[in-house]
Amino acid sequence: MERERSSLDDVIDLFAKDIDEAQLQAHLRRTPAERLEWLVQMATFTLEGRRALAGHQDADDDAGPRTR
Amino acid sequence: LQVIKTLMTTLVRERVEFVVVGGVALNLRGYARATLDLDVCYARTQENYESLERALVPLHPRLRDVAPGLPFTLDARTLKSGLNFTLSTDAGDLDLFGELPGVGGFAQARALSSPLTMDGWTVHVLDLDGLEKAKRAAGRAKDLLDLAAIEKLRGV
Q: Is the pTM of this model over 0.80?
């Protein structure tokens, strides 16, 4: 049986309009193994960025009070 | 260590019965969506608890988002006593679902999945119908975006 549409579906439709078609098609052309590699790369970049930011913050904290 | 991939291959190697759900499943189904953790729905059998213990203990699993130092041991007994676990491991974050909201347990998740093969190993991945059920049940802002992606994927 078909589910009744709700206001949530209208919001989802709006979001769907903003999804980049070319980007979607590009990912669909990848094999599952390539999609996983893409995901691993994205996760690695994000984690490396977080670590770099945390290191920067630590160095800042160790520097003691700032003087003008 | 390659986050997510190492966790998946470790679970496969130790013959854990599981279905990939969540953001990784959506990515593998065709939507370029980044995520940092692997979500899986696992079978609640004694044999599977033992397989999970064998797979995860070498990766030093600990509870995520709790006070550091809180005593926790992931073993077959803990898995049997609990249900859903949010973990950090040496190979990245892992969410274990004994019951996936909107979908059910492993049998229901498995029925809504199909196998995908990558570089010689195979995992069961929740399909778009299963992902839609799970995302509707979760209902967070990011789930609405995922639901939009699922709608879009159905149209291609």
A: yes
